[in-house]
Write a structure and sequence with these properties.
By secondary structure, the protein is α+β, with helices and mostly antiparallel strands. The chain contains three helices and eleven strands, in the order αββββββββαβαββ. The protein has a six-stranded mixed β-barrel with strand order 3-4-9-5-8-7. InterPro entries: Peptidase_aspartic_dom_sf (IPR021109), Retropepsin-like_bacterial (IPR034122).
Length: 146
């Protein structure tokens, strides 16, 4: 029987190596608008997010939104939206990806308090859905359809 990686490659998927943090999240390097950053993978997050404090670094042009973001351990958070961005994970690219900007200090506090590195953002279900994601937890691989 063929391996999952070989099977998905034949079906047009690309593989992206994941690393596990001390908090048991998967972390991955991504490129947003040509700038490399560190992101955690969160299947429970509806949208891909970047910290408000990282907007300039990633060249994010944002506008106010009525969206109120909420996450584990936090109440409603004010959010902004950056509607058209180039997002890349390995060889997988998405043009015109909307990115939500919000205060990720509570996320980074949780990570750094458990000896993990702070992250620039979160990859949410929007990217996973668009890429028809398959996650191999044992081999720590993310597969996205080109």
């Amino acid at each position: 029987m063929s391996s999952l990686k070989k099977y998905l490659k034949r079906k047009g998927f690309v593989s992206i190596k994941l690393s596990r943090t001390q908090t048991d999240h998967f972390e991955v390097k991504a490129i947003l608008n040509g700038v490399s950053g560190s992101f955690i993978l969160d299947t429970g997050a509806s949208n891909t997010c970047v910290g408000l404090d990282k907007a300039e670094r990633f060249g994010l042009v944002s506008e106010p939104t009525d969206i109120k973001a909420a996450g584990a351990g936090s109440s409603e958070l004010e959010a902004r939206i950056s509607p058209k961005n180039l997002f890349q994970l390995g060889k997988w690219k998405k043009k015109k990806l909307p990115v939500v900007l919000l205060d990720l200090s509570h996320v980074n506090l949780a990570l750094t308090s458990r000896e993990s590195e702070a992250v620039d953002g979160i990859i949410g279900a929007d990217v996973l859905r668009k890429g028809r994601a398959v996650i191999d937890y044992k081999k720590k691989m993310l597969f996205l359809k080109k």
